[in-house]
Amino acid sequence: MASIHDVAKEAGVSVATVSKVINDYPDVSEKTRKKVNSAIELLKYQPNVVARGLVKRRSWTVGVLLTVPFTNPFVAELLEGIKTALENSGYDLVRLSTRFDDPTYSFIKHCRSRNVDGVVVFGEGRENTSIQELVAAEIPTMFIDTDLFGKRAGYITTDNVNGVAMAVKHLYELGHRKIAYISGTLGPAVANLRLDGYKEGLRLCGIPYATIYLEVCDYSFDGGAKAARRLLALREQPTGIICASDMSAFGAIHEIEKHGFSVPEDISVVGFDNTYYAEVFKPSLTTVNQNIYTIGIRAIEYLIAMIENPSYTPPVVTEPSNLIVRQTTAPVNEMYSEAPAQP
């Protein structure tokens, strides 16, 4: 196995110069840098990561805090984006476990014990004091869908308001006027913003907001099914239902069909996420696309920029959303919309 001395000899430079190239010191000419990198490639030299970390005061690891189940398709696509961004970055990924229910537990101490250079957080609300401490400690952090930021913390999210408003407009243009909304648990910024989008969409379409058409669940399949069951029990059932996630939309569709109705012939359904399953589900799901994979990539790119440049201003980024029309939405069925609710 080649050593740093072998690289120095091959490149015709000192060991110190090789070390400077490996650790990205700026005081090395481009010509010398190319010679050293060519020697590293020729000899297949692998720098000692531990030694490199001591020089740069880094561990070359990024921690990820995910409190949403890995079985959730959103998480799967988000992690794929994170993995892609890390592949050629020189950083490794560490999953950070938590014990937020333990009053003696310190997430900050946990991060420091794992010696991570930065953290990506998804699935925790801003009210979590451990997360707030993360911002105060100035550990480089990128939040996904959590509206927290600070001197060393930024966040990235989707245009949630416009996304749901587009879904309302789509159903309105198909003739729907009784449009219900199955929200995620209210409180976190994302759920609140999507509800704002629903209300704004109704306002723009001239439809009064009615609380009877609002149901709240936990973004899950079962949550969507239970919410749909309550909507189907209304005297005036909705002809269109917008869900705050694809998973809750799948649950809603299952419940609608279990009650003997057809999607989209009787009731149109729109999801939010555009996960992989939205396209393969039968019928394929009309949904708001929020570029999950891209969000994962961007979160890592911004985080590494923070880690490597202490003066880098943490970004607050809103990715655009767009509506993907598939098979779960159709023009309103006038016969269904005028029929009394089934028991």
Automatic annotation (TrEMBL):
Coiled-coil regions listed in the entry: none
Residues of the HTH lacI-type domain: 2-56
Keywords recorded for this protein, A-Z: DNA-binding, Transcription, Transcription regulation
PROSITE patterns: HTH_LACI_1, HTH_LACI_2
Record flagged with keyword 4Fe-4S: no
Superkingdom, taxonomy of origin: Bacteria
Protein name (database record): LacI family transcriptional regulator
Species name: Paenibacillus silvae
